Structure prediction request, 166 residues.
Amino acid sequence: MCSVFSYLDDFLELCARNRLFKLRCLYANYIQLRCFRLTNMRMILPPVRERRSVDRMLSSFFRDYKANDFKKAIASLCRFYHLRNPRVEWFEYIDWGKTAGKTYENGQIYLVHPENWKKGRKYNSERRWISTVYHEMGHYVFWADAENKADMFASRMVRGVNNHHK
Prediction:
């Protein structure tokens, strides 16, 4: 996001030459808010030991399709946040293959089953599927400003697990 500010300077200079003051102010405020929101969002996450455990269980489910592994992983996250376990339904595909997961306001989560994920996707890796699960759990845990918080939750859940330091 730091490189955005160099583009912002160029844009502001162009707007100043063309006397587009209102557009310049709106765009500058948008970029600054966007940068601030993405870098300074605080979240309470489970300890690294617990996140590694959840990650191992999700990996195991992806390989072996044992429902118990998935349920334990989700239950562990829900226990940390003091939430009820979401109702998860499995599908071969969602929205004609465009969507990997969907979370509804009533707490229901639709996910593409790993067996189908491996078959019909361009990006069919285990890591991508686990990231999708984290993303949907992020929607379930954080309702306000859902998209940004879900993305941030997914990336931070992986940080420190399997030596990822993004």
